[in-house]
Request: fold
Amino acid sequence: MTDFKAQPPAGMEPTGASTQGDSLYELIRDDIISGRLQANERLVVADLAKRHNTSTNPVREALQLLRGEGFVVISPNRGARVRPIDQNFVRDIYEIGVLIEPALTRWFVGMATPEDIVQLEQVQAQIEENNFADAIRHSELDTRFHTIMYERHYNRHAAELWWRHREVLRAVSRRYNFTLARRAQVMREHRQLIQFIKEGEAEKAALLVAQHVEGSGRHVLEQMRAAEAARAG
Amino acid sequence: MTDFKAQPPAGMEPTGASTQGDSLYELIRDDIISGRLQANERLVVADLAKRHNTSTNPVREALQLLRGEGFVVISPNRGARVRPIDQNFVRDIYEIGVLIEPALTRWFVGMATPEDIVQLEQVQAQIEENNFADAIRHSELDTRFHTIMYERHYNRHAAELWWRHREVLRAVSRRYNFTLARRAQVMREHRQLIQFIKEGEAEKAALLVAQHVEGSGRHVLEQMRAAEAARAG
DNA sequence: CTGGATCAGATTATACATTATCTGGAATAG
DNA sequence: CTATTCCAGATAATGTATAATCTGATCCAG
Reply:
């Protein structure tokens, strides 16, 4: 088995600057995503510093990073709060994905080499082999699949935007499971996508990706809705 | 004459957190855009603090903000550098605009009220009246024109993304002038856009906006190219 | 209800410890 | 002799600690 840790496209970690800042960023982000930090909960710099055994400087940096990705809302002189990871948040993000990914895909179709195809097929094979048994692994592989396509895009801004959003969605969807229907759909779409790429069908591939992202977003939203209903009912 | 200062869509200043941080952000950003700071020039925290009469903390924050918007590149343990505002940078940004603005427009067409139309026409009248005489004023009005359309979009992420990019392009294009051809084109497209909105022609409006943004980006790029050629030759 | 006291906590200011990177030149291999 | 390696110092980022200010929010007396 090869490694399957999802790597960000070359040269674009969320790296703000510092080391601690980065790890703090991850820690706090996980706390937010996992729900250990309530929606709208206040993030007091001093407390965070104490809790994570650092000084306030790295904390502030981490909060800035988190703000940049929308996990935290900061108001001047009033500090930071946990942004509710609600349906609107997720919808906003994946809607932007629906706009951007097709464009990235279109370009990729025109640039794909036989080696790229091989890579895609390899990853897809691993996805099928795993067949959603290991959710984390699936997530990594699926991300890798798309990364292969977008990684070399000339528009670094767009690629980075994609990656950041991807990370958010991945983090959120970790909380849920794939329905059987969605599993089948994902497989189908990936296979079809590879086919289109082989045939150089840029437009069809772009359209398919739009659907793929749309479907993925919709799926997560429905899970969130269901979870919320369960909580309420 | 009414005021015409371009306002960000409700509730989305670049406000990272602090007051000084924000103003520093603006000062440094202007230095970068205006070229007072060379491309790739190193931004030494201590120096900036001294130059702006503050301590290092606000400077660090400002740099983070600037990084978030792409004006500055930070590498761990090596500090910040001015990101070259080159053609690639501009292209990346406006290409994303081409993807996002049509979607925002499409939605607006379905939501526009008679009051919105009136507002658009008023702003357009001011644009025509000014007729590019005052470049800054044109920029403000043009921004306002688009802000009216995107301001109330439910996807705050997308709207914010638009606004940030808008600010960048506006800042960059301040350095150049509109060609006569471009002026005519802008007027034409705005008028046509209003027309489409009135008729509820969402698709046509979206397409037009795509062209509008594309043309605007292309125009700036050509100006940059020309300026560079002039510098070189 | 209004103006002021009070408090929590953000923001800013300093000073310093620690650490990573860079630089010029000596030492060394080839 | 030239090129690479290595190393001491300089430079500046990053992190820690503390204190001074400033803001916004809350509480209370009038």
